[in-house]
Amino acid sequence: MLSRKTNRKETNKFLNLNFKNYLSQSAKSNHKINLAVEIKTPFEEKSLQAVDFASWSIFRKYQYGDESYYNFIKQKIAEESPLFS
């Protein structure tokens, strides 16, 4: 029997592969472009930490009305348009 950690790791591999395939196929069929998708951790790709912070800050603004972290990045945002009102 596989351990719980192994099952989760295999599930993540399966989900990542499906997600990569979905993005690649959607880009090809909807936009006629070939898209190479790589899934990396913030440890492997340091810029992901900045993206995580930015998206989390924006999420907090809209979800909880907390602009404390958003205020650090708002001058860097070129355009902002809520998807859902």
Order of SSEs, N→C? HHH
Could you list the spans in which at least 5 consecutive residues all have pLDDT below 50? none
Largest sheet: none
Number of helices: 3
> Which oligomerization state do the chains in this entry correspond to?
single chain
Number of strands: 0
Overall form: extended
Distance between the termini: 48 Å
How much helical structure, as a percent, in the residues? 55-70%
Percent of residues in β-strands: under 5%
Average pLDDT over all residues: 88
**Class from helix and strand fractions:** mainly alpha
Radius of gyration: 17 Å
The domain tally reads 2
Describe what this molecule looks like in 3D.
There is one protein chain. The chain is mainly alpha-helical and 85 residues long. The chain has 2 domains: 1-39, no CATH class; 42-85, no CATH class. The protein has 3 helices and no strands.
How would you describe this structure in keywords?
85 residues, mainly alpha, 2 domains, 3 helices
Task: Please provide a brief summary of the model.
Helix content is 59%, strand content 0%.
What is the strand and helix layout of this fold?
Layout: H1 4-31, H2 47-64, H3 70-73
